[in-house]
TrEMBL record:
Family: Belongs to the prokaryotic molybdopterin-containing oxidoreductase family. NasA/NapA/NarB subfamily.
Cofactor(s) in the UniProt record: Mo-bis(molybdopterin guanine dinucleotide); [4Fe-4S] cluster
Keyword Nucleotide-binding: no
Stretches assigned to coiled coil: none
A Gene Ontology molecular function term of the record: metal ion binding
Gene Ontology BP, a term: nitrate assimilation
Every 4Fe-4S Mo/W bis-MGD-type domain range: 7-63
Organism (species): Devosia geojensis
Protein name in the entry: Nitrate reductase
PANTHER family the record matches: NADPH-FE(3+) OXIDOREDUCTASE SUBUNIT ALPHA, RESPIRATORY NITRATE REDUCTASE
Keyword terms of this UniProt record: 4Fe-4S, Iron, Iron-sulfur, Metal-binding, Molybdenum, Nitrate assimilation, Oxidoreductase
Any one Gene Ontology cellular component term annotated for this protein: oxidoreductase complex
Length: 881
């Protein structure tokens, strides 16, 4: 599959979030790739966010796994595949089909996922295949199924633009679904009467667009929406006709909600009664309402109940399936939906069929197998418990990094260490999970792979290749099919192209489906796979997809009626004295465990270090100073993070990103602190609700460095990131080394006789080391008993400077003639906070547009516009970092 440079751009789809933006990729003769948004793709209409825009910078082969390995030694595909096939076969023969497992990912393409599921559930005969979507979408799936009888997302992105009220619950849309956020922001600018309400314990960047922010306490959502149902009922705005004709169970839900008056909801959620009144009034009086929800809802021990509490309010008002109305679960990964379609979750069989007798029998006939699994398999958290206690003896992990992303992550790592046989398929040679593998299989990545993904609005789009397969990397579908053939299932896995697999997937969705199953691609039968345009499922008529579902109020339950689920909100989360609720999630420019975004210096420029966001009053009570280091701890693990003291946090709650791993920081794997408590219905872990204690990390000396090469990190704390021309990093020591010169030479590999420029200021205790090699900066290191105060961005810029400003570096500040941008806000245009603040204060720019016209900030992808507005609003004149 060698692909040569193309004169016309290749139409493909972004490999990051579930918005599923169309991308135009244009390989250039010099090997680089130009990236642009596809104006013809209905999800983004030409837009891209900062991560999508930087895709071209993540494609280098640096750090790629390029050859199969057994026990860390390069081997041939034949040997690796044979070993996987024989070990799986032997394990099954000795211990039964449930002694093996696959752990997959919403970053697999539908075709990859389809064959992995078919192998496990169809031929091995166990349903022990689960996916990281269990950590992501499982509660939404369970909530949909309880209410609709099927896992159906009713609406689409245009509904957000058409709505008069958009409620965002547990969603940081501005950072996590930036292109939907931009579409929403544009619609609101056009129709200022549109209202946006944000429900999130933190005042995130998404609050920028909100008319009302309800800072609920962790897990206050069920109470908030049960209270809403009660308020709707009291205000007499229940759509009695709809409820009577198309739903079942309203009375029970209404009865349970009766006790939830404003006072009680205020107490349970911590939200002031007046704000609750305002929200309830707005919801009651607005017909066109879309409620968007994400991980603040799903990743909870009451996640499924939260989902149904939301859906109940939409059903009660009949606001579903019509333009500008409906509950809307936005998906995280590029193919979270595709995984659900093929049966990537252990409790679904295939093509949205469950483990009922008729479905098992139907799928058996379709696949021509008599060994189809008869019951659901283990869900992610239980699956890793089964690995730990030896029930599962061979596991194959594909396109996910569970050593970092599962709760009780140290236990997940220990489980893999205890497992007799661990196979990992990944693009990256160095991840915390790949490190634990006996067999490493090099997977093709974005730009090399060929297949389909489904986005949040049920839209199936093609990912097309525009790069040759590097080294011996192979697509996941090929790897799985090869193992299946070697296990003796050649007849069922003789695929040569992803198009064949997709055609089979289409056929299964349509097989004996007379409209009883929502997932139906019959209209795509015989479609031209190469040219296939984005299309929303179900597709029943030839190539005509469905924009919305349930417009006819017919649901996929036996009687065609939707179900209300009576919800009893859980007691409010109240941590023991001295404890904090640890909330976790994402930052704007990084993707999960950073195996790809960590490669782009421009993406690390936004936030280059793991942090914990804490309210100023809490920080003060704990003697945690601004930008000092903090230790978070509980019985499962610990982490050391930079304190980000901010009023965006609420008291008693702290927030830390999930992105940093052992590859980028000394102790920042946040999931080591998260308890593996799961939702009883969906099995999704409560990843947003750990309990931790915080203590200052006693630091003698803080350091900051930039370096052309990676230094040896001989210190008690470190966090590194890509920088243009090298690396940047933060360091800390709990004890001062006895000989700094020696320590620095050792770390940065400076020979004894090579000269090193240093400066030591006795009064302040600050030291600076600067090493210039052949006129270029080799490294610069700043040490201080207090958090290092130097403009990071300016120091970083010296790595690529033609003439190094050595004297200024030693002085620790740029000269008057050297502009100091400050921390980067706009990563596309490389515009820093100081430049934007200058535009606001000196040039008197009062709008994001004016700042853009002057500085170019915010004029490309727009992901930073909320932050620019924040600077304007606050006249934030913070000095560089
Ligand atoms: N930049 C970036 N974008 C991404 C990703 C990424 O890694 N980086 N990953 C993608 C994936 S896979 C996913 S799943 C999505 C996730 O997208 P989001 O769900 O929007 O992102 P999170 O930051 O995980 O969490 C959202 C918010 O939930 C809030 N929250 C925590 N607890 C509660 C609660 O009890 N109630 C309420 N109402 N809110 C709460 C948090 O404060 C947080 O702001 O993002 C996708 N997009
Ligand atoms: N505390 C906490 N934990 C969380 C979350 C949270 O909010 N808080 N969020 C959860 C959620 S929603 C999610 S989705 C997960 C995400 O967590 P993970 O899935 O563990 O994170 P990724 O970094 O996306 O891992 C994907 C891996 O697949 C590799 N890869 C990329 N493309 C391919 C490919 O085509 N083929 C193969 N074989 N490999 C590939 C990458 O190099 C990387 O190692 O984290 C979950 N964990
Ligand atoms: S919003 Fe950004 S990350 Fe998500 S699909 Fe679009 S470009 Fe990719
Ligand atoms: Mo996710």
């Amino acid at each position: 599959m060698t692909v040569v440079a193309q004169p016309t751009p290749i139409r493909t789809t972004c490999p990051y979030c579930g918005v599923g933006c169309g991308v135009l990729a244009m390989p250039r003769p010099d090997g680089t790739v130009a990236i642009a948004g596809d104006p013809g793709h209905p999800a983004n209409l030409g837009r891209l966010c900062s991560k999508g825009s930087a895709l071209g910078e993540t494609l280098s082969l640096d750090g790629r796994l390029l050859y199969p390995e057994i026990h860390g030694n390069r081997t041939s595909w034949d040997e690796a595949l044979d070993l996987v096939a024989t070990t799986f076969k032997k394990t099954i023969a000795e211990h039964g089909p449930d002694s093996v497992a696959i752990y997959g990912s919403g970053q697999l393409l539908t075709e990859d996922y389809y064959v992995a599921n078919k192998l496990m559930k169809g031929f091995i005969g166990s349903a022990n295949i689960d996916t990281n979507s269990r950590l992501c979408m499982a509660s939404s799936v369970a909530g949909h199924k309880r209410a609709f009888g099927s896992d159906t997302v009713p609406g689409n992105y245009a509904d957000l633009e058409l709505a008069d009220l958009v409620v965002l619950v547990g969603s940081n849309l501005a950072w996590c679904h930036p292109v939907i956020y931009q579409r929403l922001a544009a619609a609101k600018a056009e129709r200022p009467q549109m209202r946006v309400v944000l429900v999130d314990p933190r005042r995130t960047m998404t609050a920028d667009i909100a008319d009302l922010h309800l800072p609920v306490r962790a897990d206050g959502d069920a109470a908030l929406f049960v209270g809403l149902l009660n308020a709707l009922s009291r205000r007499g705005v229940i759509d009695r006709d709809y409820v009577g004709e198309h739903t079942i169970g309203f009375e029970a839900a209404e009865l349970l909600a009766e006790d939830w008056n404003i006072a009680r909801v205020a107490e349970a959620t911590g939200v002031p009664a007046a704000d609750l009144e305002a929200f309830y009034e707005l919801f009651a009086t607005t017909q066109k309402v879309v409620t968007v929800y994400s991980q603040g809802v799903n990743q909870s021990a009451s996640g499924t109940d939260k989902v149904n509490a939301i859906i109940n309010c939409h059903l009660a008002t009949g606001r579903i399936g019509r333009p500008g109305m409906g509950p809307f679960s936005v998906t995280g990964q590029p193919n979270a939906m595709g995984g659900r379609e093929v049966g990537g979750l252990a409790n679904m069989l295939a093509a949205h069929m469950d483990f009922d007798e008729a479905s098992i029998e139907r799928v058996s006939r379709f696949w021509g197998s008599s060994t189809v699994a008869a019951r659901p398999g283990l869900k992610a958290v239980d699956l890793f418990r089964a690995i730990a206690d030896g029930r599962i003896k061979a596991v194959w992990i594909m396109a996910t990094n569970p050593v970092d992303s599962l709760p009780e992550a140290d236990a997940a790592r220990a489980a893999l260490r205890a497992c007799p046989f661990v196979v990992v398929s990944d693009m990256s040679a160095r991840t915390d999970t790949v490190a634990e593998a006996h067999v490493r299989l090099p997977a093709a990545g974005w730009g090399e792979k060929d297949g389909t993904v489904t986005n949040s609005e049920r839209r199936i789009s093609r990912q097309r290749p525009f790069l040759a397969l590097p080294g011996e990397a192979r697509p996941d579908w090929w790897i799985v099919s090869q193992v299946a053939r070697r296990m003796g299932f050649a007849h069922a896995f003789s695929y040569f192209t992803p198009a064949q697999i997709f055609a089979e997937h289409v056929a299964l969705s349509a097989f004996e489906n007379e409209g009883q199953r929502d997932f139906d691609l019959s209209g795509l039968t015989g479609t031209d796979y190469e040219a296939m345009a984005p299309v929303q499922w179900p597709v029943r008529k030839p190539r005509k997809g469905a924009e919305r579902m349930f417009g006819d109020a017919r649901y996929f339950t036996p009687d065609g009626k939707a179900r209300f689920v009576p919800i009893q909100p859980p007691p409010p989360i109240s941590p023991a004295p001295g404890q904090f609720v640890l909330n976790t999630g994402r930052v704007r420019d990084h993707w999960h465990t950073m195996t790809r975004t960590g490669k782009a210096a421009r993406l690390s420029a936004h936030i280059a270090e793991p942090f914990v966001e804490i309210h100023p009053a809490d920080a003060e009570a704990l003697s945690i100073r601004r930008t000092s280091l903090v230790r978070l701890e509980n019985r499962h693990g610990c982490a050391v993070l930079r304190a980000l003291v901010s009023e965006r946090a609420q008291r008693g709650h702290v927030f830390a990103p999930m992105h940093w791993t052992d590859q980028f920081a000394s102790s920042a794997r946040i999931d080591t602190l998260v308890t593996a408590k799961t939702d009883p219905v969906s099995g999704q872990p409560a990843l947003k609700m750990a309990r931790v204690t915080l203590t200052p990390f006693h630091t003698r000396i803080y350091g900051f460095f930039v370096s052309r090469n990676r230094p040896r990190l001989i210190c008690d704390y470190w966090a590194i990131a890509e920088a243009p021309g090298g690396l940047r990093g933060e360091l800390a020591w709990t004890e001062e080394p006895s000989d700094w010169d020696k320590a620095v030479r050792l770390s940065f590999g400076v020979p004894e006789d090579a000269s090193l420029t240093t400066l030591f200021d006795k009064t302040s205790g600050r030291r600076v080391y600067v090493c210039v090699e052949n006129g270029r900066l080799g490294f610069a290191l700043f040490l201080s008993p207090d958090p290092v105060l130097v403009s990071r961005q300016w120091v970083v810029s010296q790595l690529e400077a033609e003439a190094v400003a050595a004297a200024a570096l030693l002085a620790g500040r740029p000269g008057a003639d050297m502009p100091d941008q400050g921390a980067i806000v706009c990563s596309c245009m490389g515009v820093g906070v100081n430049t934007i603040a200058d535009a606001v204060t000196r040039s008197r720019c009062t709008s994001v547009e004016a700042v853009g016209a002057l500085t170019k900030a915010g004029t490309n992808c727009g992901s930073c516009r909320a932050e620019i507005r924040g600077i304007i609003d606050a006249h934030r004149l913070a000095a560089a970092e």
